[in-house]
Amino acid sequence: MVVWHDIREADEPEYHRWHTREHMPERLGVPGFLRGRRGVDWALARHRYLTLYEGKQLEVFCSAAYLQRLNNPTPWTNRLQPAFYNFIRSGCAVVSTTGRGVGGAMITIRLSFHGASEAKLVVDSAAITEQIMALDGVSSVDIGSARPEITSAKTRETELRGTTSDGLFDAVLLVDGIGRRELEAAKPGVLDILQAFGWSPKTDDVAVYDMAYMLEPA
C-alpha cells in the first residue's frame, strides 16, 4: 500500500512524533504487515510525504484486523488526522520486482494507462525493471498495479481526514537507491526507459523521497 500526502505546517513536528512512536508501530502490529517506511521531500509543495507498507499478501490491507484499527483510532490519531490533506492512496499488486535491501532514498512514479492496459504493463515490466536496475545508484525496482478497491473502504479514520483519493493512478514504479544524489542523477535515465516503452508520467507524478523512518514487526 502506497500513500502520498501533506500535513498542515503547524502540525508537522507532532506528525513525525505520532507516526514514529504510535502510528507505524500500531500498523506493524497488524498480522501480515511486513515493513513500513516513511519518506519526505522538504522541497515539494504538494505530496511532501510518502508512506509505504509491504504486506504478506494484498488482502492484508482489507483484513478484519486492519479495518478494526481503522475504525477505532486512538486519541492521538483522532487529534492529528484532520491535519492531513492532498491524500492519495492505493493497495498495489506487485507486477515485477528486482533487487534487495532498503536504500536511503526512493523515486516514486505514478503511472496512468491512458489507452494502454494492465496487460501491456505486465508485458513491459520485467524489461523495465531490469534496465532501471542497471542504472548507477539503484538498489531495487518494483512495479505495482493499483488495486484501489482494496483500500477504498470508508472507515472512521477516512472520515477524520476528509478527502481521501483512491483510484487516481493505475500503477506505480518504485526505485530504491543509495541516496537522493544518486537517484536524482538516475531519474532522467528512468524516465527515458519508461518513455521507450510508451509510458510518459506527468511531472507532478514523479518525486524523490529521502527515507526518514523504517519499521518491521518486532
What would your notes on this structure say?
The protein has 218 residues and is α+β, with helices and mostly antiparallel strands. The chain is built from 7 helices and 9 strands; from the N terminus they run E-H-E-E-H-H-E-E-H-E-H-H-E-E-H-E. Strand 2 (33-40) and strand 3 form a beta hairpin. The radius of gyration is 17 Å and the shape is globular.
Q: Which helices and strands, and how do they pair?
A:
Layout: E1 2-7, H1 12-28, E2 33-40, E3 49-55, H2 64-70, H3 75-80, E4 84-99, E5 105-111, H4 118-133, E6 138-147, H5 148-151, H6 156-161, E7 164-166, E8 171-177, H7 180-196, E9 206-215
Briefly summarize what is shown.
This protein has seven helices and nine strands, in the order βαββααββαβααββαβ.
**N-to-C terminal Cα separation, in Å?**
20 Å
Largest β sheet strand count, sense and barrel closure:
8 strands, antiparallel, barrel
Write down the overall geometry: globular
Class based on secondary structure composition and strand pairing: alpha+beta
Main sheet: strand order: 1-3-2-9-5-8-6-4
Q: Please give the number of β-strands.
A: 9
Share of helical residues? 25-40%
User: Which stretches of 5+ consecutive residues score pLDDT under 50?
Assistant: none
Order of helices and strands: EHEEHHEEHEHHEEHE
Average predicted local confidence, pLDDT: 94
